Amino acid sequence: MASGHLRHLVAGNWKMNGLKASTDVLDAVIKGHDAVLAARADLMVCPPATLLAAFAARAGGSTVAVGAQDCHAAAAGAFTGDIAAEMIADAGGKAVIVGHSERRTLHGESDADVRAKAEAAWRAGLFPIVCVGETRAERDAGHALAIVARQIAGSLPDSLPGDLVVAYEPVWAIGTGLTPTVADVAEMHGAIRRQLVERYGGAGQAVRLLYGGSVKPSNAAELMAIADVNGALVGGASLVADDFLAIAKACGTS
Ligand SMILES: O=C(CO)COP(=O)(O)O
């Protein structure tokens, strides 16, 4: 389908990992994202909030973008410990992950919360990376497609005010070494694409659909070659520059 032309985006979600010394990893990623690799895939690193400004300054002028892992829906206010999308933009971030399953599960975020955060991202001039995905029990019960369709419906607004990235991350594949079959990923990404096109028309064709969950150098080529997989959201392997770069190299080769 027309989305075949979309450039791959490989985004690293560092989660709650990384200290100032981890700038080494960012430096190696910037160095490794040479012209050959940059032609294949866009790269983004999403460090913890403490490193956001330093990483954005370091990556400034390079081909590597920096993003955040979460934001509050409000632009400012009495929300102790939270970070506004405007602050992420001010720190030099270009994007923000919203609705990661760890936020949905551990912080009780609903689809409505995720949608409000996505809208905050656009308000601040960022693009959201909206995460969806079913649990093992939901897949075993045959409900994976319905669960993800419901999350997509509830986590996105009626019209798109800007760029959008959606990440399909089956909860049971995160940090486990398990991945769905190629056929299951293809079925899910095809269904998400159809839903986005039904809802947004042509703009739905331009949404990059990332796969996330135990993406490694060893399985990246197979996963990145699937129709309607337009990149990866990488957890553990993004903390090791060589692994992260190897995943990016697996893009656009088929
Ligand atoms: O949650 C993830 C990225 O957001 C995936 O994590 P892993 O790559 O460690 O499985």
* SSE pattern: EHHEHEHEHHEHHEHHEHEH
CATH class term: Alpha Beta
How far is the first residue's CA from the last residue's CA? 16 Å
Q: Let me know the average pLDDT.
A: 96
Outline type: globular
CATH architecture: Alpha-Beta Barrel
* Structural class assignment: alpha/beta
Subcellular location: Cytoplasm
EC number: 5.3.1.1
Subunit structure: Homodimer.
Pfam families: TIM
Explain what you see:
It is built from 12 helices and 8 strands. Helix content is 43%, strand content 16%. The chain has a single domain (2-219, 232-249), classed as TIM Barrel (Alpha-Beta Barrel). Helix 1 (23-32) packs parallel to helix 12 and helix 6 packs across helix 8 (144-155). It is an alpha/beta fold. An 8-stranded parallel beta barrel has the order 1-2-3-4-5-6-7-8, surrounded by 7 helices. Strand 3, helix 4 (85-90) and strand 4 (95-98) form a beta-alpha-beta unit. 43% of the residues are buried. The chain has helices spanning 23-32, 35-40, 49-59, 85-90, 101-106, 111-123, 136-140, 144-155, 182-200, 202-205, 217-224, 241-249; strands spanning 8-13, 41-46, 64-68, 95-98, 127-132, 165-168, 208-212, 231-234. The longest helix has 19 residues, at 182-200. The protein binds 1,3-dihydroxyacetonephosphate. 1,3-dihydroxyacetonephosphate (13P) is lined by residues 13, 100, 169, 174-175, 212-215, 233-237.
